[in-house]
Amino acid sequence: MKNKDYFLKKAQDNYPVLKFTAITPDISDFTASSGDSFILDLAQHAVGHFSFSFDNVEKFIDAPVRLIIRFGEDMKEINSDFSLYNGNVSKTWLQEEILNLDYPQKVCMPRRYACRYIKITVDETNYPIKFFDFRFTAATSADISALIPCNTEDALLKKIDCVATNTLKNCMQTFFEDGPKRDRRLWTGDLRLEALTNYYTFNNSEIVKRCLYLFAAGECDRLGFLPSYVYETPYYKSGEAHIADYALLYVVTVCDYYEHTADICVVNDLLQICKSQLDSFEAVLDENMIVTMQEGWFAFIDWCPGLEKMTALQGVYLYTLERFSELLKTIGDEDFKKYSSLLTQVRSACKKYLYDENEKAFINESDNRQFSVHSQIWMILGGVINGKEAENLLLLCLDNKNAKQPVTPYMRHYVTEAMMKLGMKDNAVQYLKNLWGGMIELGADTFWEAYVPEDPDFSPYGDRNANSLCHAWSCTPSYFIRKYGF
Amino acid sequence: MKNKDYFLKKAQDNYPVLKFTAITPDISDFTASSGDSFILDLAQHAVGHFSFSFDNVEKFIDAPVRLIIRFGEDMKEINSDFSLYNGNVSKTWLQEEILNLDYPQKVCMPRRYACRYIKITVDETNYPIKFFDFRFTAATSADISALIPCNTEDALLKKIDCVATNTLKNCMQTFFEDGPKRDRRLWTGDLRLEALTNYYTFNNSEIVKRCLYLFAAGECDRLGFLPSYVYETPYYKSGEAHIADYALLYVVTVCDYYEHTADICVVNDLLQICKSQLDSFEAVLDENMIVTMQEGWFAFIDWCPGLEKMTALQGVYLYTLERFSELLKTIGDEDFKKYSSLLTQVRSACKKYLYDENEKAFINESDNRQFSVHSQIWMILGGVINGKEAENLLLLCLDNKNAKQPVTPYMRHYVTEAMMKLGMKDNAVQYLKNLWGGMIELGADTFWEAYVPEDPDFSPYGDRNANSLCHAWSCTPSYFIRKYGF
């Protein structure tokens, strides 16, 4: 079996080249005294480094100047009071620096930022100073010149596609980041959707390969599941979380990869790891073939508060089993029979134990009889119900105010996928226009990590300023629009 | 006549080489969580750049770390609450930075600091982090290996000499700075005392020459006086203040320079400027040969609050006239007669118009009849009174609680010089031991900008944290100890 060093070497071999573009903001220079501030607009969301110069105007400043420089993905972030931050993730994610500068100079800020707007506040200067030569050097590993054209005729879908590809582009750095503002990390769930959209847009298969190997080099937990994220900086480290649905979606990402590249070498390298993910999952099924909660376990599914996740997780398992047995069949691996047969068995068990015949929905004791869109969608994607029955359930749950609803474009991707699986293309187009178009109406330049139409400031972290407004898992409209000709 | 470009070229030709020394603090590593802080001690006052590394301990930090790094010249500064700062100079002089660091790394802080102590506070980290590889790279243009030994047998004087040479060393950078914490600028009054002490310690005449030329390149005010300071960064600029006593002391600095180097080329380059300083001063004398206040004028003399300065300023004029006519005589310049004769005239005028025969002191209307040490000392240094009469007055004023007293080692240098002029060596030694020794008793590693024994926190700027604790004008004990064999 291949080892960690081998996988890391492969990841390194596919390290992408970053491409840099200089962006000049709307304002070319500005003179300011103590207390003054001004906002630069890049006219687009970008990820990279900021530099500027300042000089004396008439009188020489005779003490250091103190500047407060804030980077905001939107104007709400620029104008909010960071001192009131009350989120449950670190306040250091808020992009603001305090700089003391001894004398007029060119300032090249060392950190990378994700922003459309830059607010410079002169906290203290003895005399007016003049700012000029603003430059934001944007970075991405996406090759813009390779972007496959989008053929939709619909103006809104065109706009959605454009924002979606920008979102992906800005998350494509030296790996697929979840969000360039926060956490800037490689997560499996995000990777799967980024990679999928990538095949239809920038089609950079090396970076997908690289990410697959980065996970392969990770350390599995006691149950055998891959880490859900890995650290790349300052050196490689396997992440501590082993989210069950993410471990399964790693296998799906490998299946997608083969489907789009036919690269059998990579599949051969990763096949054993994929099998062990499914085998590890099989080991936590009860005698009825239903997944049971394990100590220290966590499923993600969505950021929906209070969501019960066992049924959805079981659906992810089915979805993965189906994709993986297809892959095995395609490449001529005899194990496909074992996984196919398991798929059939587990599907039946789900209908028997997780479906409530009276309610005509997946409402069960596993999830404390909670009715969620998530359970219905994943059972549909898992093939437990089909056709008109599934279609009715899908529409019913989306329409039910009492059902737990998705709060992330991540979960809404799977809702849209379920619609497409059921042949509900019109519904899918409308759903996509409503949900992703809703963010555009609110001024989004890139798609957000979380979006609740009735509560646009909703945050999974207790504070909107912690939210990532350019989040890779929200880029999949480009996948749907391009793959299915929306 | 030579022009600005010529003088700047000469200044550039004498640009000093900085020498760097790595200082390792007392602590080699430290593990810290959010809210923790620790203090590094360099065991000496130093001027330069700080670097350190930090890394994860067990868990990877999964958000940027925020550090607050404070540099203090002493522990009082390290432990004080900067948010209460109430000084009348910019708060940006307080040496504290807030750093957001994305991941473990070696951090080389870009600014220069003056400090003995460094306090690192971990404002936010998700998991404990370990700090290590602390390094302070100290810079000076003083050549330590060239330091002339000090022959005093007295333990306290030895200690005072050591602290004084450290003070000078740390102010010797690419020019003679007044203080490396604040203002880090070339001022004439400071330059004169630094240059003087330099001849007896590091004896680097190039840096003196360089500073003389930097002023020569400056722009005189409407009255003909040189600027009192010049800016060197980011590019040369003549300062806006033209302090009267400082303009005169520039001439004295040229005299000192010739006395110690016999470098006639420099004197020839600067002679016309020197003459014009004295001629400009002559132009502001009234019909009695007494200086009159000019619009927009300012004399420094000392930071003593409420000090009346016209008599002292007149003394600086006499002192300068005497030194300059000696120089002219030495180099065979016939103008010496004009300045000598002026000196005699003005001395008589001072005795007649500024001395109160009843009070037996220089108390007069020019200074609203204020009795100050400053007036007495400068009249003595100006040679208006001599011998026992001067000695009695000197002792009397220093002993008089109602007299305005010096608050800076700068003014106390001239008190000591006056004692030596009057042959009061024992008093001078005792004065020096009391005043500079007093700072050492309070833990000084370098001598302070201001020091009032009864009020050690006295600040000319309304807040002790604005004070410079390594101030060049306080380095002259090494001059006295070494020149006069204290």
**Cα separation of the termini of chain A:** 44 Å
Shape of chain A: globular
Strand content of chain A: 15-25%
CATH class of the largest domain in chain A: Mainly Alpha
Regarding quaternary structure, how should these chains be classified? Answer: homodimer
Question: How would you describe this protein?
Answer:
The structure is a homodimer of 486-residue chains. The first copy, chain A, has 486 residues and is an alpha+beta fold. Helices cover 40% and strands 16% of the residues of chain A. In chain A, strands 1, 2, 3, 4, 5, 6, 7 and 8 form an eight-stranded antiparallel β-sheet that branches. In chain A, helix 10 packs antiparallel against helix 11, helix 10 packs across helix 12 and helix 12 packs antiparallel against helix 13. Chain A is globular, with a radius of gyration of 24 Å. The two termini of chain A are 44 Å apart. In chain A, 50% of the residues are buried. The model of chain A has no long low-confidence stretch (mean pLDDT 97). At the A-B interface, strand 5 of A face strand 5 of B.
In brief:
Chain A has helices spanning 4-13, 75-79, 155-171, 188-200, 205-216, 244-261, 264-282, 310-331, 336-354, 373-381, 387-399, 409-421, 425-441, 477-483, and strands spanning 19-23, 29-32, 37-56, 65-72, 96-101, 106-108, 113-124, 129-140, 186-187, 229-231, 237-238.
